[in-house]
Amino acid sequence: MSTRIAGHLLVECLVAQGVTHAFGVPGESYLAVLDGFHLHRDQIRFIINRQEGGAAFMAEAHGKLTGRPGVCFVTRGPGATNASIGVHTAFQDSTPMVLFVGDVASDTRDREAFQEVDYLSFFGPSTKGFAKRVERIDDARRIPEYVARAFATAMNGRPGPVVLVLPEDMLTQVVAAHAGTGVLPQALPRVEAVEAWTDPGSLRTLREMLLKAERPFVIAGGGGWTVQAAQALQRFAENWKLPVGNAFRFQDTFDNHHPLYAGDVGIGINPRLAARIKDSDLILAIGPRLGEMTSGGYTLLEVPKPRQKLVHIHASAEELNRVYQADLAINATMNAAARSLEVLDAPVAVAWDAWTQACHADYLANLEPQILPGDIDMPAIVATLQKHLPADAVLTNGAGNFASWMHRFYRHHGLAKGFKTQLAPTNGAMGYGVPAGIAAAIATGRLAFTIAGDGDFLMNGQELATATQYGAKTIIVLLNNGMFGTIRMHQEREYPQHVTGTQLKNPDFVALACAYGYAGVRITRTAEFEAELLAALDRPQGTLIEVMLDPEVISTRGTLSAITQNALKHLQQKE
Fold it and tell me: How far is residue 233's CA from residue 77's CA, in Å, rounded to a whole number?
């Protein structure tokens, strides 16, 4: 071929980067790219979504699973703004992702043309924005350069999202061979993430700090972890007999079955674990940015200088000392950091053996549930899931109190055993779980399980049509309590008995699931769940199991009425 159009070249660049799936909603602004997907359909698959928010969530989930940028295509204006929720999730979750936006033609730009948006202003970039980088491709011959840079930016340092804007007329340009050489612009080779290694001096200092410690604690999480890095982290913890907690919604970073595991450091944290972190004299934060949820609203570690000695290891130099002033800040990627730590010379005995054992005992004690009212025993349901779901199942959820049942009671085998098993939004985005589970089923072929709330499910339930279209089997447990439960809980704490804006009139979820091609069942008692789960595991298509949950069962630790009565008591004391 002496010529080809730019849209085809763009798809060839994606293939060269190893992209196997792109998620999106079609738009007339990038028809030339869609034609490229048709041309290269044996190498890359375009997954048709029903709404751009679902597409962006699927791309973000794909990035979490693979460590390579998830790819999403949307059209201009409304398409891009709908997709912004997935970009924000990728940013706060440190997930590599590239969003391609078909844009207005070059000759209509800056006139507020149909659906025109200033993407640089809208998407950032900054530590308070959406994207790490936002660029427009105006010259079709430079497509390979821009795509390779987008993938490198998305993966290097703190992983995150990049936005590439594609003018409609640019995509239809004929990309001709160079006049002198006769060579067509070609896709650049696959980009790999750059490793940043720890320096020997920092490792010596870290070892000295460990030897002086009495109550050390590791918090692991964030983006950029691989199977090899997780295994190296486990060996480091074993060598030094260190208790390890996983950062908020990175619960598969360290094996939950391991005797060194101390629990998840996030929303609804075990009170004993919170006390342990506050009482620690040395925190090793390996990977997380120590955001608001992992830090307990910046209370477990005080801002800007924690009471505990803090060693913060992060892939981005810009993240270090940005919020917390560390006693030792180490700029290193997770694979490099963990491999350096696993060979850090450990003493024969450590002073904190009893401390480590007590941390794990606290975790095991937290697995014992409180007695709560109603005919549905959620800890028993989670135990049934633990019993029957395969160890490599991908578990997904959106945002809401419903997720706390899995966070507290489900034990992830995790990356060290070979598989990433948790997809969950650290930015608290509702509607994430359903599309993330579908993306996992499409990308891995492994069983995908989603727990959702009634409000959460209705944010992106339309993507069940996508699942059915592509034969992506997922199992969804939908907890129906007829309200936005998390907000109602906070409402009762702050404004008891003033119920406004949190009640839900729901559809028939079973009938809705069936309409999309899923099997749908409803249970009202715990004893009904196991048989329905086994049937769902055997069924070729996806299944939605609606669980009618008593509104009183608002959290894993207490009831809604108890929260209300406690709030009323405090109000009376103030009067």
Answer: 44
Q: What is the CA radius of gyration of the chain?
A: 25
Report the 3 state secondary structure along 37-94: HHHCCCCCEEEECCCHHHHHHHHHHHHHHHCCCEEEEECCCHHHHHHHHHHHHHHHHC
Closest CA to 75 of 166, 157, 195, 181: 166
CB atoms within 10 A of CB 381: 24
* N-term to C-term CA, the chain: 82
Pairing of strands 45-48, 216-220: unpaired
Report d(CA 164, CA 73) in Å as an integer: 10
CA pair distance 256, 244, nearest whole angstrom: 10
| CA distance linking residue 221 with residue 415, whole number of Å | 11
Single-letter amino acid, residue 127: T
CA geometry: angle 3, 7, 10, nearest 5 deg: 95
Q: Which of 378, 392, 364 is nearest to 257 (CA)?
A: 364
Q: What is the pLDDT of residue 159?
A: 97
Phi, psi of 399, deg, nearest 5:
-120, 140
What gap in Å lies between CA 575 and CA 562, rounded to an integer? 20
Selection from 454, 442, 322, 360 nearest residue 394 by Cα: 442
d(CA 358, CA 365): 10
Which are the contacts of 74, defined by CB distance < 8 A and separation ≥ 6? 24, 25, 27, 52, 55, 56, 80, 82, 83, 99, 100, 101, 102
Enter the tokens of residue 275.
């006390």
* Residues forming beta bridges with residue 422, ordered by sequence position: 395
Cβ atoms 233, 254 nearer than 8 A: yes
Cα separation, 464 vs 470, whole angstroms: 10
Q: Are 472 and 438 in contact (CB under 8 A)?
A: yes
pLDDT for residue 1 is more than 70: no
Tokens representing 1 are: 């071929």
How confident is the prediction for the chain on average, in pLDDT? 96
Summarize the confidence of residues 50-71 as an average pLDDT: 98
| Maximum pairwise Cα distance, the chain | 86
Q: What is the pLDDT of residue 2?
A: 58
65: CB partners within 8 A, 6+ apart: 394, 420, 423, 439, 440, 443, 444
Q: What does the pLDDT look like over 18-31, one tens digit per residue?
A: 999 999 999 999 99
Q: Are 34 and 168 in contact (CB under 8 A)?
A: no
pLDDT score of 178 more than 90: no
Distance CA 136, CA 116 (A): 13
Give the pLDDT score at 127.
63
Query: Which of the four pLDDT bands, split at 50, 70 and 90, describes residue 399?
Result: very high
Is 0.85 topped by the overall pTM? yes
d(C-alpha 244, C-alpha 261), whole Å: 5
Task: List the helix and strand counts (H, then E) for the chain.
Answer: 21, 20
Average pLDDT rounded to a whole number, residues 502-510: 96
Enter the tokens of residue 242.
């260190």
